[in-house]
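hey m, so remember when u said the C-alpha cells were messed up on ur end? i reran from scratch. heres the input so u can diff it against urs
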Amino acid sequence: MMILQVILSIIVFFVVKCIIYNITEKGLPDFINYQPFNCYKCFSFWTLITLYIVILLSFSTWAFSIAGIIITILDAIALTIDEKNNTISIKDI
C-alpha cells in the first residue's frame, strides 16, 4: 500500500506541475499577478507543499505526503541550482 501511495504522490506532483506551468505561461489576471503566483518555482513549491500537508492532515496518508513533500523540496532545490547555472555572462555574448 505504501508503494502505491508513493507512486500516486509522484503522479500528483507531475500533474500539478503541468497545470501550474500552463497557468504561469499563459499569464495571470492583474489581481494575482505578483509573487508567488507569477513565479513558476514559487507557485509550484507553495501549492504542492500546501496540497501535501492538507492531504496529510485530512487523510493521514503519511507515505503519500512525506514522499510528495520530499519531491517538492528536491524540485525547488533543483530549479534554484538550474537558475544559477543558466546565467548569461558577457563572455557568452
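this time it looks ok to me. The radius of gyration is 16 Å. if urs says something different then somethings off w ur setup not the seq
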